[in-house]
Amino acid sequence: MYRQIKFILLFILINWLPLSGQPVYFDKLYDKGEGELLELINRGAIIERNWGYLAYTESIDLGINTTDILLIKTNFEGDTIQQLIINDDTAYYARLQNFLTINDSSFIGLLTSYDLTLNNAGDYGLINFTESGEVVWQRKYGSDTTQEISQRFIKCSDKGYAIIGQITWGEDEDGDMYLVKTDSIGNFEWDNYYGGSLFEAGTSLQQTTDKGFLLLGWSRTYGAGERDWYLVKTDSMGNEEWFETYGDVFSQSPETIIELQDGNYLMIGGGGNGGGNATKGRMIKINQQGEVIWEKDYTYPTGTGSNRLVQGVELSDNSLVVAGFTNKASEGDAGWLVKTDSAGNLLWQRKYNMNQYPDLFYSVIQTSDNGFLLGGSGLNLATLNQDARL
């Protein structure tokens, strides 16, 4: 009898976990403490260390149009160990798009900044900083006469870096995707631009086995409709070899491209018509020639608004875990985590409402204990401001 009861309980547990997701070990908000209206943790903004977690948040004071880049160090329970300001330029809007580890105490990040008083003109660049927040070196690129927004950077096989983003030319609202290549200490080597007569923008990139690049973004010139997914393949010097578009007239901007263990690639973002104003989260797996292997859309049950996937990781068994946000009219936005098998078939999904107010996930990593750490923002009921959230 005891063995039968044990078997029944085990059966219930096995079948319940995929529906409920994993238990939440901590869910916390982080605030610089000076009345900022919005703080959030962006894509690629979390790194696990041997003592805990390191994350950055952009801290925005919308009242005076300034931002700080805040580095948050926490223990494994999410308790704050230290907060450090990396950049505090009161004349510019500054955002650290993502950062990578160089060694045990040094990091390199991609910085976008622009002056809201000068027609949004600005620049972007790489910044090398230590775990204590000290800036080792900083390189800036771009022009004061154009609006340039960097989105993502990667380390290349030659130990240099490649940056993707978008540039707006003059006042005609024409824009192009751009790619910038630097050496290992951020010195400019070359750049290239991609697009047609309307607007194109870059969001994410990967280096390919031939030392070229796959550039992911969106296009209004090519494809079926608004913000079609736009993939450009280049050689090692950034010269365009081919491009493809994906999606339909309901497409929403893609967010991330990741390389998979089988040598293929996964594109992650939003798209698809879910009825009314609703959209779906979307993943597209492609081979090295850009050909679609599978394409899947995802919505959270009873979600009636935006369903958007932002960033994902591939696990050792080739399954996929992807974070984003979903919403329901009566609840607002909620953080959203989706797990699929290697073919994109849904295994489980879960949403995370902190206070039944806007909650968004932009970043996810797998932790050393095989859990997941999610980063984004959530509403602080005490201040009614959006705070960074882990």
Structure description:
This protein is mainly beta and 390 residues long. It is built from one helix and 29 strands. It has one helix spanning 2-20, and strands at 29-30, 38-40, 46-48, 53-61, 66-74, 80-87, 93-103, 106-114, 122-130, 135-141, 147-155, 161-169, 174-182, 188-194, 200-207, 213-219, 228-234, 240-246, 254-259, 265-273, 279-286, 292-298, 307-314, 320-328, 332-340, 346-352, 360-366, 372-380, 385-389. A hairpin with a 5-residue loop joins β13 and β14. The relative contact order is 0.12.
Please give a quick description of this structure.
This protein has 390 residues and is mainly beta. It has one helix and 29 strands.
Keywords:
five-stranded antiparallel β-sheet; 390 residues; disordered N terminus; mainly beta; Methylamine Dehydrogenase, Chain H; globular
Write the layout of secondary structure elements.
Blueprint: H1 2-20, E1 29-30, E2 38-40, E3 46-48, E4 53-61, E5 66-74, E6 80-87, E7 93-103, E8 106-114, E9 122-130, E10 135-141, E11 147-155, E12 161-169, E13 174-182, E14 188-194, E15 200-207, E16 213-219, E17 228-234, E18 240-246, E19 254-259, E20 265-273, E21 279-286, E22 292-298, E23 307-314, E24 320-328, E25 332-340, E26 346-352, E27 360-366, E28 372-380, E29 385-389
Antiparallel strand pairs: 1-29, 2-4, 3-4, 4-5, 5-6, 7-8, 8-9, 9-10, 11-12, 12-13, 13-14, 15-16, 16-17, 17-18, 19-20, 20-21, 21-22, 23-24, 24-25, 25-26, 27-28, 28-29
